[in-house]
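#struct-pred

JT: dropping the chains for the assembly here, can someone run the whole complex?
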Amino acid sequence: MRDEQRLGRAAFLGVTAVGLSSLLWGRSAWEATSRLVPSGVGAVLPQPTSGWRIYTVASTMPRIDPATYRLRVDGLVQQPVSLTLTDLRALPVAEHVSDFHCVTGWSVDDVRWTGVRVRDLLAGAGPLPSAGALAFVSAERPYVDSLTLEQALLPDVMLAWEMDARPLPRPHGGPLRLVVPAMYGYKSVKWVERVVVTREPVVGYWEERGYDQDAWVGRSNAA
Amino acid sequence: MSEPRYVRRFSRTERSLHWVHASAFFVLLGSGLVLYLPSLATEVGRRPLVKDVHLLTAVAWILALAAVLVLGDRRGLRVTARELDVFDSDDRRWLLGGDAPQGRFNAGQKLNAALTAAFALLFAVSGALLWLGERDTRFRLDGSIVLHDVLTYASVALVAGHLYLAVIHPTTRHALRGITRGSVREDWAREHHAKWPTDAQ
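RK: done, full complex below.
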């Protein structure tokens, strides 16, 4: 037959070429277009680079009763303490809005966190002079991560019990999670039930699997 | 009433490729949605297990496709690939909404095949990059996650249309017999695929 065209191959090669090259430009293109999408749409469908994804490492997600919840602070401290959520709320309340960045490539902009600064939490227990780091132990075993004392005392590092002015939902680490805005999300331990003051940072769950101890957004993990 | 006559449309190799691909797609879609949608992720939990299912299915999918290619009728597949590749003036008229006689594959089926093959390749590449990138930052490309997600949306749309035509739409759903049992009614073939030389089958 005359005027035959190999359109099948052309379509295959064209789509493949666009797809492969999008590995380099796809994210910026998506971010540019998702700004044009009405914000209500994002609430229905999770979007590739804005919208939460729920990552867990254990086979079941911790279910914690806020009424009986206790946060223990111990290790190299003068006075180990065990605090209820009511105790925590009695401490100076901190609030800020920050962007949350996952190391796997998605981000959520403008998240409002309410909680207590780690520096205010620590004041009650009184770290010993030998204290150099904090380990945040999750109820989701064996998840743990750590910060140096200096990092943990940054003013925007907090243990949060509210997200976007609502009680912290279970998938996001409720009733209490760490928030470290300047670092990738794997440092922001969910379902925190214990803070241990140590001399050196303990090796966290993801650090054991090759991720950086200092997880600064845009300056770590070969970003 | 005379017995309907049947003509062979798909070889065993072609049907095997189709069903390997289709079954892997649905397992990957199901496990992928559990990993992706917050509500399902919370409900199901067991993320490490679901992740293993997703990864092992992907590996099994590629190995099974390769096995069919190695063991199957490759010469027949080459002929089919050529049929899928070539669009003539009737195909182009058909694509523009005109009524034009079609061969063994209509132009829409040809496009579906090209897109499905491209999506499969891109899914495999972006998925491998996501998997490797968890271990080695050199593989963490900016667009992997967007590409894998966009492909999911696009292929769900494609498969939804494909399923509608294959299972629900009254005039086209007889085609399902071709991909399950290999043959279709001759009168149906003449009506929908007038240029398909059914006598030669």
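JT: nice. The mean pLDDT of chain A is 91. The first helix of chain A runs from residue 7 to 34.
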